[in-house]
């Protein structure tokens, strides 16, 4: 994904990599049936990387407050850090969240499985 009309790595792609890194960090501490969902992302994209650059994202737990975990996230290319910030994720029951989403979308009407 490019950034607008420019052939550089796009901010939404960087954010997606950061979110994936955060999910991986938290995955091992979850109970069966639990997952995490993103609730907040506050990052800056500080340096441009060309399309095709090797970008890696990282996450580290900063704070846990009940079901809410705040992580420090950053991404880098071969030359160094290109973005950084914080990401908040909530621990939820996966099936319950999907059921609530369907209820919200279909308003109690019969909905596809």
Structure overview:
It contains two helices and six strands; from the N terminus they run ββαββββα. The protein is α+β, with helices and mostly antiparallel strands and 113 residues long. The strands form two sheets. A four-stranded antiparallel sheet has the order 3-6-5-4. It has a two-stranded antiparallel sheet with strand order 1-2. The longest helix has 17 residues, at 11-27. It is globular. It starts with a strand and ends in a 7-residue tail after the last helix. The model has no long low-confidence stretch (mean pLDDT 91).
Keywords:
113 residues; four-stranded antiparallel sheet; 6 strands
Fraction in helix: 25-40%
Report the radius of gyration as a whole number of Å: 17 Å
Structure class:
alpha+beta
Count of beta strands: 6
Mean pLDDT: 91
Distance between the termini: 31 Å
Principal-axes shape call: globular
Count of helix runs: 2
Residues in β-strands, percent: over 45%
The parts where pLDDT drops under 50 for at least 5 residues are none
